[in-house]
Amino acid sequence: MKRYQNLHQIHQLDPIQDHQEICRLMAGYEFPWDINRALEIALFRTFCVPSISALLDKTGEFHQRPQKRYDDTALTVAEILKWGYDSDRGQEVIRRMNHMHGHFQISNADFLYVLSTFIYEPVRWLDRFGWRPMSENERLASFYFWQAVGQRMQIQNIPDTYEAFERYNVEYEQQHFRYAQTNRLVGDSTQNLMLSWFPCWLRPLVRPSVHSFLDDRMLEAYGFTAPPAFLRQAIAYSLRLRGRVLGWLPPRKQPKFYTDADHRSYPNGYQLTQLGPPRMLESLNQGTKPE
């Protein structure tokens, strides 16, 4: 079936040697919308850790410039997925990340957890709502891809296997998810950003819908009110229905990375030199190659 021609191509590739190409096909062709949504949930999950939310609250970026912070994060991830971490653009965005992170005291454990969410949240989302789940080749390729990115970010003690890193992800959440005021502050700012994408009259209806994507442990860590059970069920049903419909459509012929979309922060397009907090841009751009 033509719908599975990309999957057939992926199965001809090696998840260790060819993980960059496999991840490019997944993010650009097979699951572009789903992976973006899963990474939004991954972002929300990291704010449930008080040590992470406290740092983000202190920087003020999520409160002062939430749309730019959102777009810059999404564009950074999309640049790496689209071009590969060893391309000129991939190396540059990783350099910029390392420069920004170097200004803050961030524990290696927190770095490891955030990295793990980029692997396992898309897997879990697609298991629930995708037009198909990730294949074994795709899961392994995602692991090796983000492991390589983590190494280039100087993250230490990255687990050697997919299963071991997944255990780390689950155990870290069990140990570190708990309520903190900074969780709520950063969560509210991010939630308000998402609500701003909708007309004013619709926002009271959208807010509980956002909460429907958060599990009970996340709701408790934020101090958010649990949404009605029927709303959770209705949204889950709608997403599963969407997945079934997509399964009957032909494969995407043109890629749809986040880099290719219109961005509220950059209505006229963007350059890598614009990514990052405004107060850091001068130092970030020293030595940057012209585009």
Q: Could you tell me the mean pLDDT?
A: 95
Provide the succession of SSEs: HHHHHHHHHHHHHHH
What fraction of the residues are assigned to beta strands by DSSP?
under 5%
Q: Which blocks of ≥5 consecutive residues have pLDDT under 50?
A: none
What is the number of beta strands? 0
Organism: Trichocoleus desertorum GB2-A4
Domain ER-bound oxygenase mpaB/mpaB'/Rubber oxygenase catalytic: 50-229
Protein name: DUF2236 domain-containing protein
Pfam family, one: MPAB_Lcp_cat
Describe this structure in words.
The chain is mainly α. The protein has one domain (14-254). It contains 15 helices and no strands.
Provide a compact summary of the structure.
The protein is 64% helix and 0% strand. The protein has helices at 5-11, 19-30, 32-46, 50-59, 61-64, 66-83, 88-101, 108-129, 136-152, 162-176, 181-195, 203-211, 216-222, 229-246, 281-284. Helix 2 (19-30) packs across helix 3, helix 2 packs across helix 6 (66-83) and helix 3 packs across helix 8.
Topology overview:
Elements: H1 5-11, H2 19-30, H3 32-46, H4 50-59, H5 61-64, H6 66-83, H7 88-101, H8 108-129, H9 136-152, H10 162-176, H11 181-195, H12 203-211, H13 216-222, H14 229-246, H15 281-284
Helix pairs in contact: 2-3, 2-6, 2-9, 3-8, 4-11, 6-7, 8-9, 8-10
InterPro entries: MPAB, MPAB/Lcp_cat_dom
Domain ER-bound oxygenase mpaB/mpaB'/Rubber oxygenase catalytic: 50-229
Organism: Trichocoleus desertorum GB2-A4
Keywords:
291 residues, mainly alpha, MPAB, DUF2236 domain-containing protein, MPAB/Lcp_cat_dom
